[in-house]
């Protein structure tokens, strides 16, 4: 069965293939999104929520999920361009959801750029819905240790 896709948990030997795939599929100029660094951090924290899709012993997709005890997250999903539209992304999402549910996770969230209509539609077809939320972020790694931002009283007001 040459066209069978097998989804399994991440193994350390997958690192090189995953990093190469992430560079090809999800290029980013942001240093905190460097695939090699991000994967190494994730493996140290929670490697049991990384799943890989293989076809003929070739890595063709992967999903990275997380669970903090309150909510699950899909941090990243990638499928090689020549293997898209064949259900691999959905298989990976379902595998991540099953693993999160087994951990007692009640809800899964993910983020997609608002301009990425194709990916938004993919997640809608997988059962995800847009929620009325704003996503805020703050880069911590660019703040030098000796230049910690001063406390802002507005940050303490609730």
TrEMBL record:
Annotated SUPFAM superfamilies: Acyl-CoA N-acyltransferases (Nat)
InterPro entries assigned to the protein according to its UniProt record, in alphabetical order: Acyl_CoA_acyltransferase (IPR016181), Bact_Acetyltransf (IPR050832), GNAT_dom (IPR000182)
Keywords of the record: Acyltransferase, Transferase
Class of enzymatic activity (EC top level): transferase
Molecular function terms from GO: acyltransferase activity, transferring groups other than amino-acyl groups
EC number: 2.3.1.-
Residue ranges of the region described as Disordered: 139-158
Compositional bias of kind Polar residues: 142-158
Listed Gene3D superfamilies: 3.40.630.30
Start and end residues of each N-acetyltransferase domain: 5-146
Origin: domain of life: Bacteria
Pfam families documented for this protein: Acetyltransf_1 (PF00583)
NCBIfam families associated with the record: PRK03624.1
PANTHER family given in the database record: AMINOALKYLPHOSPHONATE N-ACETYLTRANSFERASE-RELATED (PTHR43877:SF2), AMINOALKYLPHOSPHONATE N-ACETYLTRANSFERASE-RELATED-RELATED (PTHR43877)
Name the record gives this protein: Acetyltransferase YpeA
Gene name linked to the record: ypeA_1
